[in-house]
Amino acid sequence: MTRSRRSTPTPVGALLTAALPALAEPLLALAVRRDWPSVVDPQLARRARPGDLRGGTLTVIVDNSPWLQELTLREGELLARLQARYGAGNIKALHLTLATS
User: Fold this and answer.
1) 65 near 73, Cβ under 8 Å?
2) What confidence tens digit (pLDDT) does each residue in 30-41 have?
């Protein structure tokens, strides 16, 4: 009976370097969800919530059409606040969408 060859161990640093880029957006999305009430005004925080972050685009889910219209008008202001807090390179755009029932 022969023993199978084991592969060479991979250094932990190499594993973390490979894993962190894949975790960057999900971790940032969690931070945005956690901080949302302090980033936006309280009334808006009750009517809209952050969703997924993919490719630098943050989805914002809005309760109803009037608030979707309001956020559309204030999209630039909201994006600027998020970029100031998390970096312009991390959140590049917003995708506003109406919540489904």
Assistant:
1) no
2) 999 999 999 999
Instruction: For residue 44, tell me if it sits in a domain.
Output: yes
Q: Which domain covers residue 38, as residue numbers?
A: 25-98
pLDDT at residue 1 greater than cutoff 60: no
- CB-hemisphere CA count at 13 Å for 94? 23
pTM greater than 0.85 (yes/no): no
> How does DSSP classify residue 72?
H
E strand intervals along the chain: 48-54, 57-62, 93-98
Cα angle 67, 85, 31; round to 5: 80
**How far is 72 from 29, CA to CA, in rounded Å?**
21
Domain annotation covers residue 34: yes
Supply the CATH number for residue 85's domain: 3.30.300.180
CA distance 43 to 100: 20
- State whether the Cα torsion 43-44-47-49 is positive or negative: negative
